[in-house]
Design brief:
By secondary structure, the protein is α+β, with helices and mostly antiparallel strands. The protein has one domain (5-145). It contains 4 helices and 5 strands. It has helices spanning 5-14, 24-36, 58-75, 136-145; strands at 19-20, 43-46, 84-86, 94-97, 118-121. A hairpin with a 7-residue loop joins strand 3 and strand 4. The longest helix is centred in the middle third of the chain and has 18 residues, at 58-75. Mean pLDDT is 84; it is low at 105-109.
C-alpha cells in the first residue's frame, strides 16, 4: 500500500539531509530564524504522542522554542549542542530535536538510529512508530505546554 501524498512528502523530508546546530550559538541563530517564521504553520510533534492534525499558531511555536531550549540546556550539559538538526539552517522547514536522555547514535551511521524526541515541520507529520514509550515526565511536559 502506497503512502498518501502528504505522508510521502513528510517521510521523504524526514529521511532527507539535515545539518546539526553544533554549537549553542548556532542553535540560538536557528531559533531566531524559526521565531521569524513562527506564523508559517509549524506542526509541533512529540514522537510517541499522536501527530497533530493542525499547525500551531505563532504564539505556540514561540512558547515551544522557549521551553524546548530551556529543557535542552538544562539536560544536555555539554559545551556543544549537536542534538538539533535542520533541513536548512538558514531557511528551516523541518527540524529534528533529539531528547538528551535518548540519544543513542543520533548522527552518523546506525542500523537503528533513535527517532527524535520532537519534530517541527511545515509538512503535516505522520505517526512515526516510537521505539520506546514516551516517559511520563516528557508526556507531562508536552501536555503542560499546550493545555
Amino acid at each position: 500500500m502506497q503512502p498518501e501524498p502528504n505522508e510521502q512528502a513528510f517521510l521523504q523530508a524526514f529521511r532527507g539531509s539535515f545539518t546539526s546546530a553544533l554549537r549553542w550559538h548556532h542553535l540560538d541563530a536557528l531559533w531566531e530564524r524559526v521565531r521569524d517564521r513562527a506564523d508559517l504553520g509549524w506542526y509541533l510533534y512529540a514522537v510517541g504522542e499522536p501527530p497533530p492534525k493542525q499547525p500551531s499558531d505563532g504564539a505556540q511555536v514561540r512558547t515551544f522554542i522557549e521551553e524546548i531550549d530551556r529543557l535542552l540546556r538544562e539536560e544536555h550539559r555539554e559545551d556543544y549542542c549537536g542534538i538539533v538538526y535542520a533541513d536548512d539552517l538558514k531557511e528551516p522547514r523541518f527540524l529534528k530535536i533529539y531528547d538528551p536522555h535518548n540519544l543513542g547514535v543520533s548522527c552518523g551511521y546506525s542500523e537503528n538510529p533513535p527517532l527524535p524526541g520532537w519534530i517541527m515541520s511545515l509538512i503535516p507529520p505522520v505517526d512515526l512508530p516510537a521505539q520506546r514509550v514516551l516517559p511520563n515526565n516528557r508526556r507531562r511536559w508536552w501536555q503542560r505546554l499546550f493545555s
